[in-house]
Design goal:
Radius of gyration: 23 Å
Number of helices: 1
Helix content: under 10%
Shape: elongated
Order of helices and strands: EEEEHEEEEEEEEE
Length: 208
């Protein structure tokens, strides 16, 4: 048998600024992520990347309000995915790591328009997400087994447009009822080895 020693340490140095001016409020934050991995099977790895986030809100617009968030964050490869050790699951399946994995980074942007009037409330939400070098799972056939291994894709892009309309009626202090109607349209484009995979989805829910 083989003895493997794994150590991992993550350090985040972060600073945040919060402010308000009339109807506009905001929060800005930024920091540095340092991730250190020591694995007796693949050696040591050290990653340094930025984490930043910004939030804003417009209030005092009568029945309407607006808010949004934009963030940039890294994702470091998990230790198990970096170790190039062949692990047999059963007679047909196995898995192994990939020492050449790179960290991925994600940029998320979200904006909401909110409305509220008496028993009615609603929102319209736009969400855009882009991932560079996404860490994905790949399965291939090798040595008479289906082997699963993590790999970096080229890019993953996602757009989402959602809306909600809700009616809620309060009848005294102990009873209320409501109806919520929601819808979402999502578009995803995953680019792996110059190939594109598209997914277009919409859903409509009636919740009572």
């Amino acid at each position: 048998s083989t003895s493997i020693t794994i150590n991992s340490n993550t350090l985040l140095s972060y600073v945040e600024l919060t402010g308000r001016h009339n109807i506009f409020s905001y929060t800005l934050g930024s920091g540095l992520y340092h991730n250190y991995i020591s694995d007796s099977s693949v050696g040591t790895r050290s990653y340094l990347d930025n984490y930043s986030i910004g939030k804003w809100r417009l209030s005092g617009l009568g029945k309407f309000s607006m808010d949004g968030t934009i963030s940039y964050s890294p994702q470091f490869p998990p230790m198990a995915a970096l170790s190039d050790i062949y692990m047999t699951v059963d007679d047909l399946a196995a898995s192994k790591g990939n020492p050449s994995l790179r960290p991925s980074s994600t940029l998320d942007t979200e904006m909401n328009i909110n409305f509220s009037h008496k028993e009615f409330s609603s929102y319209l939400r736009l969400d855009v997400s882009q991932i560079w070098d996404p860490i994905l799972s790949n399965t291939f056939y090798e040595d008479n087994r289906y082997v699963t291994q993590s790999q970096n894709g080229k890019r993953h892009l996602s757009y989402s447009l959602g809306a909600n309309l809700q009616y809620r009626k309060f009848c005294g202090d102990d009873f209320s009822f409501g109806v919520s109607l929601s819808g979402e349209l999502r578009f995803q484009d995953s680019r792996i080895d110059q190939r594109h995979r598209y997914n277009l989805r919409n859903c409509l829910n009636l919740i009572q």
